[in-house]
Design a protein that fits this description.
Number of strands: 2
Strand content: 5-15%
Radius of gyration: 35 Å
Number of helices: 3
Structural class: mainly alpha
Shape: elongated
Largest sheet: 2 strands, antiparallel
């Protein structure tokens, strides 16, 4: 087995070069950058157009997030109403079921990352609860019909 040939140990070397501030540099210091004179040709209309584009993209995203947040608040409020109605042992109103149906079908479109994912989860819960309440109403109506026939 043969070893790898080397030139010897590697050590930092001392240099006598000095930077502009008069401080000596070592092998580990970065070379000093010399600023190059480049002509600045910025145009105000181009800069303004870029800012307008940036603001337009930001405001669209902000508006989409606001719509999704508003929808989510409304959906959670309706789910709270449903929860209260169920806990009180009362009957769920047809108006509340219609409200849940409408909310379920009117989720704002758009991709706002985690916010959209959260809104989708709320939509699924609204759809499940609406279907469950409709099923219970149909079942209750069938029971009432069977009870009245039996009398």
């Amino acid at each position: 087995m043969r070893g790898i040939n080397s030139l010897g140990p590697i050590t930092p070397r001392k240099t006598t070069r000095r930077n502009r501030a008069g401080e000596p540099t070592t092998a580990f210091s970065l070379p000093e950058e010399t600023p190059e004179a480049t002509p600045v040709t910025s145009s105000v209309p181009v800069g303004r157009a870029l800012l307008d584009l940036q603001e337009a993209g930001t405001s669209d995203l902000y508006q989409m997030e606001q719509e999704i947040t508003r929808w989510s608040d409304n959906a959670l409020g309706s789910l709270r109403k449903l929860q209260v109605a169920l806990l009180e042992g009362g009957e769920v109103s047809q108006q509340l079921l219609n409200e849940l149906d409408t909310l379920c079908s009117n989720l704002p479109e758009g991709d706002a990352g985690g916010l959209s994912s959260l809104a989708n989860s709320i939509q699924v819960r609204v759809a499940i609860e609406t279907a469950r309440m409709k099923k219970n109403k149909i079942h209750d109506m069938d029971q009432e019909g069977a009870d009245s026939e039996g009398i």
